[in-house]
Amino acid sequence: LGSLSTLQILDLSGNALLYGTIPPSWAGLVNLQFCSLNSNSLNGSFWSLPSLFFPSLVTLIISGNKFDGSPSFSGFPLVDAIQVSNNLFEGPFPNISHMHSLTSFDIAFNKFSGPLPSYFPPSLESIYINNNNFS
User: In whole angstroms, how far apart are CA 116 and each of 2, 17, 56, 103?
Assistant: First the structure.
């Protein structure tokens, strides 16, 4: 898939045979605007690829997998919707203060902990943070 540099929409949702980590070659999907990988058996750190930067991404849906680690959304400047619920993410509340286009943010059913941030992007219309360990 990484060689499809003009690909804008990728929906691989609900594929029982889609498992393991995301291949490094996917970093070549520089024109990707919509990415849905929900309800698979993907694991590891979604954020482990230093070159994994989707400058055109608007929607990211990776719910219902086994991704872990502490997510960073710094490589997604234009994103307006993020759904990463039902994974194994942990750590503090992810920094989304720089995401001025973000309207929907779903991190429910993970292992996040600690205090909630004092600032959220004013564009935010819906936020799902239930079933974590926030204080």
Answer: 36, 36, 28, 18
